[in-house]
Amino acid sequence: MPSIPQSLLWISLVVLWLFVLVPMLTNKRDAVRRTSDVALATRVLNSSRIARLRRRGRGPASGHLSDPDWRPSAEDLDGDNRENRAPGRSVVMVADQYASRDDPPDPPLGARHGRIARYARGADYHVQIKKRLHAVCDRLRTDHPGHEFRAFTDTAPVLERELAQRAGLGWVAKHTLLIHPLRGSYFFLGGFVTTLSAQPPPEQRVSADHCGTCTRCIDACPTNAITPYSVDASRCISYLTIERRLPIDERFHEPIGDWLFGCDICQEVCPHNRPADHGRAGLPHDAYKPARDSFDLLDVLGWNQDDRRSAFRSTALKRATLAMIKRNAIIVAGNKLSAADDPPLAESIHRIADDPQESDTLRTVARITLNRLNRQ
Ligand code: B12
Ligand code: SF4
Ligand code: SF4
């Protein structure tokens, strides 16, 4: 795929405007439908006010959007400036379902197992979405020579929920995730930016906010990470277990419960993820068929690099290093042991606490866990 200059990417993101011919759009939408097989929907954005980050010096110091010490300023997020009024750039947003609100609830977990969030149970979405988006972009490149297209999902500094909301894919809800009014929130977001101009379909509407007076996600969050429409990432189990590389503060150990990787609680309790009777809950793409929903903690605690590599192959679990997943496993094992005896599991934590070959992080977490168990 020809590379698109970074500056163009940024300009493309901020410069969203109404564009050209409906027939061209029809081609584009057909191409997206035929080639990408996106499970939820495709929309073309039509907005002169678009959330964005500045490319230089405005993003998180760590370079990653999950940095809990960073928040975009209103200026970063406010797209209402002269650049945005220039014509002829567009962003197409897609949503790709990984689970259905009609799925049965998780079966009870094995006594020694730690749970994986739904989004990471099947194939790696970064690869899956990019593959399908690249196919769409390739086709559009052939149909529209001279135009540039660049696909993104998750990793680019793009505020995907804001864009998707403006593209009519749902509303940014109190737990800060995007909810589609019929399909719920178990989907990924992605899209592509292009120099091509496109007309949003006439039926495209920004969804109303259907959270109303509900506070279930806020009440259910075990670490009190949610205030309406905002998540404190430094308290979120998803951040702690997937992004944080250092030891996890002891006050979060018990609330982590049995979450070995990620957390779905705020989505599980949401009424918009309950089974629906309208028959339009949608089906996830086959690639996301769960290969596993948990791991045996004793296995994880005994893994070496090769074991981790083969267990995580082709999945989004790869984000966790060996030290991170073992750290998480120690914390979850501690929670299991506080409820029921399991001598081999306890022995495994003792071994890590006393092993000078283990990393400082793992030994620290193991000792904190043993102290916690001794206090009970
Ligand atoms: C960083 C990140 C995280 C962090 C922080 C989450 C967060 N709420 O910000 C952590 C690691 C905690 C996380 C967790 C999860 N994530 Co995440 N995450 C991201 C990522 C990479 C960036 C999000 C971001 O912009 N953060 C920056 C902070 C500062 O944003 P914010 O505080 O929420 O501010 C937003 C709004 O409040 C608003 N806003 C704030 N201030 C202002 C001011 C003004 C003036 C305006 C106009 C707007 C505005 O704009 C911001 C952007 O939307 C996106 C992918 C992407 N590139 O967008 C995925 C993404 C949001 N995550 C996703 C998922 C699936 C999850 C998890 C469900 C995974 C799991 N099961 O464990 C959890 C859910 C936790 C939760 N309730 O949010 C999906 C969500 C899909 C959906 N249906 O919405 C995304 C879109 C990835 C993807 N490509 O599919 N995530
Ligand atoms: S993912 Fe879990 S910890 Fe994070 S906000 Fe949702 S319920 Fe809270
Ligand atoms: S649980 Fe309630 S408040 Fe939270 S996102 Fe769902 S509808 Fe909105």
Describe the protein's architecture and organization.
The chain has 376 residues and is of the alpha+beta class. 35% of the residues lie in helices and 11% in strands. It has helices spanning 6-14, 22-36, 74-77, 125-143, 160-166, 216-220, 237-243, 253-256, 265-268, 297-301, 305-312, 322-337, 343-354, 360-375; strands at residues 41-44, 90-97, 113-116, 149-152, 171-172, 178-179, 187-194, 226-227, 230-231, 259-261, 294-296. It has a four-stranded antiparallel sheet, with helices on both faces. α12 runs parallel beside α14 (360-375). The longest helix is centred in the middle third of the chain and has 19 residues, at 125-143. It is globular and about 65 Å long. Bound molecules: cobalamin and iron/sulfur cluster (SF4) (2 copies). Cobalamin (B12) binds at residues 51, 65-66, 71-72, 74, 77-78, 117, 119, 153-154, 158-162, 175-178, 185, 187-190, 229-231, 233, 236, 238-239, 242-243, 262-264, 266.
Using the alpha-carbon principal axes, give the shape: globular
Put simply, the count of helices is 14
Q: From the helix content, strand content and strand pairing, which structural class follows? A: alpha+beta
Which strand order do you get reading across the main beta sheet?
1-2-7-4
| Largest sheet report | 4 strands, antiparallel
Give the number of DSSP strands: 11
Question: For the terminal residues, how far apart are their CA atoms?
Answer: 58 Å
Uncertain spans:
1-56, 77-88
